[in-house]
Specification:
The structure holds 2 protein chains of 2 kinds. Chain A folds into 2 domains: 88 residues, Rna Polymerase Sigma Factor, Chain: A (Orthogonal Bundle), CATH 1.10.1740.10; 82 residues, Orthogonal Bundle (Arc Repressor Mutant, subunit A). In chain A, helix 3 runs antiparallel to helix 4, helix 5 crosses helix 9 and helix 9 crosses helix 10. Chain A is built from 11 helices and no strands. By secondary structure, chain A is mainly alpha-helical. Chain B is mostly helical. Among the domains of chain B are: 38 residues, no CATH class; 64 residues. A two-stranded antiparallel ribbon of chain B has the order 1-2. In chain B, strand 1 and strand 2 form a beta hairpin. The longest helix of chain B is centred in the C-terminal third of the chain and has 91 residues. Chain B starts with a helix and ends with a helix. Classes of the chains: A mainly alpha, B mainly alpha. At the A-B interface, helix 3, helix 4, helix 7, helix 8 and helix 10 of A face helix 1 and helix 3 of B.
Chain lengths: 208, 264
């Protein structure tokens, strides 16, 4: 219910964007509150890493604050924000290529489970079921990570962020056909990966 | 188009067209179902819950007017003009354009001293007169220097000769005699010493020579005697040997003679 309200708020955020563009700090703060979860989840699915997602989210909103006054059309705010997020993700990928490092959080994944349980909004549900859902989510996420960055960003934008192909094309500064082509090949690749890992509707149904 | 259909982004016309296509080619529909299954599977990836951090917006973007680039640019130009004005006031520049020549000058104007017009002959006369004047001056200074040099030489020589003659004239006849006798005595003594020394040395040398010769003779005699002694010993040994051999031969002959008699 809360998400639906949030979605409604995002759909009708034109006035908020206009006020934020004119320098209203309160409106800018509300914009961050509205979009932070989406940008964080986009980055998280792109990197499958909490720290990287936090880093990208922060950079995205700092850049939004700096450049919002230059946004010409308010209707294009969504794709504009995702353009910033994608650019930040690509920058991090470039940095990651040059810097060989790993997160210390990766060393104690097991200990993180309790934290993840605490932070989960499903904690009123059946704990076993939630844990299975979380494991399945991680498994599918790891399959997603096997796609190329170009295909991955399109799949995430379409599947999880609900952007239209036109909006994705604007955000990535490519043609709509290119986006559709990347989506098609991305889904095909995922199909092959699922087949290799024996992930089907039935196995997932059994797990859940 | 297939992908757009999967995500419901086709209009009615396009949807109908595609459905007709699927009716003709059911394989494509199977393909689409496969992609639809993937679409359904990946929808199980959950969103992570995250709390947006508090936002602090600074006012760094609002810059005072004097820090804007336009004002800085204008201030730069104004400062340059002011600098030129101050420099102009201090140095007093003057810009002239005359006879196709642009002249920029600083400070007070210096009046040029223009010499009067002279003919070629006048210039020649001036040069020759200045040359002859300088030659005369040179000759005069040279003759003066020569005189001074001669004078100093004469003075120096006469002083030296005078000192020598003065010393000679001061010495008396007795002093000369004593000096000569001293010289003779010293020479004599020197000769005597020389001869004495040479005779003593010769004597010593001869004595040493005789001693050495007698030593040599003694040694020679000793060696000769030893040689003779050894020879005599040798002869004696030979003689003994000869005796023994003759005895052996004789005994041999005697024994042979006895044996032959027995045979007969």
């Amino acid at each position: 219910m809360a998400e639906t309200l949030l979605d409604i708020a995002m759909m009708h955020s034109d006035t908020l964007i206009a006020r934020a563009r004119e320098g209203d700090k309160n409106a800018q703060g509300k914009l961050v509150q509205l979009w932070y979860k989406r940008i964080y989840n986009f980055s998280y699915k792109f990197f499958f890493d909490h720290d990287m997602a936090m880093e990208v989210s922060q950079k995205t909103f700092i850049s939004m604050h700096k450049n919002l006054s230059g946004l010409q059309e308010i209707e294009r705010f969504k794709s504009w924000l995702y353009t910033i997020a994608v650019n930040c993700c690509r920058e991090e990928v470039r940095k990651k290529k040059t810097m060989r490092s790993f997160s210390l959080n990766d060393l104690n994944q097991e200990r993180e489970e309790s934290y993840r349980w605490e932070e989960s909004h499903h904690r009123n549900e059946n704990p076993e079921r939630v844990m299975r859902q979380s494991e399945l989510s991680d498994l599918l996420q790891s399959c997603l990570m096997q796609l190329s960055p170009e295909q991955r960003e399109v799949v995430i934008m379409k599947e999880y962020e609900g952007l239209k192909f036109r909006e994705i094309a604007t955000a990535l500064n490519v043609s709509e056909n290119t986006v559709k082509s990347r989506m098609y090949y991305g889904l095909n690749s995922l199909k092959k990966i699922f087949e290799q890992q024996k992930i089907t509707k039935d196995t997932i149904g059994y797990e859940l | 188009m297939l992908i757009a259909y999967l995500y419901g982004e086709l209009n009615e016309k396009e949807t109908e067209k595609l459905e007709r296509y699927f009716a003709q080619y059911p394989d494509e529909l199977v393909k689409l179902h496969g992609l639809g299954e993937v679409h359904e599977l990946i929808s199980h990836v959950q969103d992570k819950e995250v709390i947006a951090p508090p936002v602090f917006v600074d006012d760094a973007s609002i810059k005072p007017l004097w820090r804007s680039p336009y004002v800085k640019f204008a201030m730069g130009i104004a400062a340059s003009i002011l600098f030129l004005l101050v420099a102009g006031k201090i140095l007093g520049p003057e810009i002239n354009y005359a006879n196709g020549e642009l002249r920029i000058s600083f400070g007070k104007k210096v009046e040029k001293v223009v010499p009067p017009n002279l003919t070629e002959n006048q210039v020649r006369e001036m040069i020759s007169s200045s040359l002859s004047k300088s030659n005369e001056e040179l000759a005069a200074t040279r003759s003066e220097d020569q005189k001074k040099l001669m004078q100093t030489l004469v003075d120096f020589n006469s002083k030296k000769i005078d000192a020598m003659t003065k010393n000679v004239s001061q010495a008396s006849q007795e002093q000369v005699r004593s000096f000569v006798s001293n010289l003779q005595e010293q020479n004599l003594k020197l000769m005597k010493d020389y001869f004495q020394l040479s005779t003593a040395d010769q004597k010593k040398y001869m004595e040493n020579l005789l001693v050495d010769f007698s030593g040599y003779l003694q040694e020679q005699r000793k060696q000769d005697l030893q040689f003779v002694q050894s020879k005599v010993n040798y002869l004696e040994r030979n003689n003994n040997q000869f005796k023994q051999e003759t005895e052996q031969i004789l005994t041999g002959l005697i024994s042979n003679a006895g044996s032959k008699k027995n045979v007969y």
